[in-house]
Every structure is written in C-alpha cells, then in structure tokens.
UniProtKB/TrEMBL annotation:
Organism whose genome encodes this protein: Araneus ventricosus (Orbweaver spider)
Positions of the Reverse transcriptase domain: 1-128
The gene coding this protein: pol_253
Coiled coil: none
Protein name (record): Retrovirus-related Pol polyprotein from transposon 17.6
Taxonomy, superkingdom: Eukaryota
CDD domains reported for this sequence: RT_LTR
InterPro entries: DNA/RNA_pol_sf, Retrovirus_Pol_polyprotein, Rev_trsase/Diguanyl_cyclase, RT_dom
BP GO terms, sorted: DNA biosynthetic process
Gene3D superfamilies according to UniProt: 3.30.70.270, HIV Type 1 Reverse Transcriptase, subunit A, domain 1
Taxonomy of the source species: Eukaryota, Metazoa, Ecdysozoa, Arthropoda, Chelicerata
Length: 172
C-alpha cells in the first residue's frame, strides 16, 4: 500500500484491471487433480482449474501475479491490477505492455469491472487520486453510524475498526 501511495502522488492517469474468475484461470497439474475430487450422487468429479477454497489457492495465485507484474508498470493484489502513469501517451504504452503480458500468461480480464485512463479509481476499497489515497465517503459514513461505545469491550472494538484508517487521520 505504501508503494501505491508513493506512486499515486505523481499520477494523472489510472486504470484498474480485474481478472475474470481469478483462480479458475490457473490449471491444476494433472497429478494433483485427484486431490480436488468431490462426490455427487451422479458421479465423482475433479477440478481441471484451481477452485476457490483450496488452502494454497490465494498464495498460488499471488505468486502468479507477482511473476506477472515483475518488470511491469503496474501493481497487483490477487486479481486486481492497477496501472498509474503521468501522461496519457505513457499510459497507453503501459496498458499495451500489460495487455500483451496478459495474453502471454493466458489471463483474461473482466471488462465490465475494468476502468481505463481515469483521474481517480477505486482500488481495494480506497480511492486512488493524483493527491494520493483517500477513504471513500461510504467508509466514513459507516464509521460515523457506529453507536458510541458504552463499555471497554465496545471501545476496543471501535478503536480497532478506526485503526484501519489511521493513515488518513492526523494524530491518530
């Protein structure tokens, strides 16, 4: 997140790319497919693609994404990719590079969830702008609607909720 904050300060154009059915784009090695087997009344089935719910699925997918965006002008968290650039021409060049790499890795984007060449984008629940990272009004509203704590346990819970936003609150 700190890398993203630093990069966002020098950015004019932003794009987010959401990968379609993230885990399902990774093939399960044929020798490991029996480990994913499940039984139904009408037969036994096994996955050819990595399903959600496998213990190692998030780490496996993140390793793939780390390899994917290495040496690319992008950052990724699981199936969410963000591209930041200072100029429109640079942004188009970055996007072309990323699209070619997506093709090489046989990864598909969910076009309905992608946003291209925006001045601000929502990424991982936060707003990324040329000024940096901002908390969305929906998050602020949710914290404001929490009833005032009346005991120690409720106070601890409230402070824990607020601590997620400490980077955005002066003198927290």
């Amino acid at each position: 997140m700190d890398d993203l904050l630093q990069s966002a300060k020098h950015t004019t154009f932003m794009s987010t790319i959401d990968l379609k059915s993230g885990y399902h784009q990774i093939n399960v090695h044929p020798a490991d497919r029996d480990k994913t087997a499940f039984v139904f009344p009408f037969g036994t089935f096994r996955y050819k693609r990595m399903p959600f719910g496998l213990r190692s699925a998030p780490a496996t997918f993140q390793r793939l994404m780390d390899m994917f965006y290495r040496n690319l002008p992008a950052m990724a968290y699981l199936d969410d990719i963000i591209v930041l650039s200072a100029t429109f021409d640079q942004h188009l060049l970055y996007l072309e590079t990323i699209f070619l790499k997506l093709k090489d890795y046989k990864l598909r984007a969910n076009c309905s969830k992608c946003h291209f060449a925006c001045s601000r984008v929502k990424y991982l629940g936060l707003w990324i702008t040329s000024r940096g990272i901002e908390v969305g009004p929906d998050k602020v509203s949710a914290v404001q609607k929490i009833p005032p704590p009346i005991n120690v346990k409720q106070m601890q819970s409230f402070l824990q909720t607020c601590s997620c936003y400490r980077k955005f609150i002066p003198n927290f």
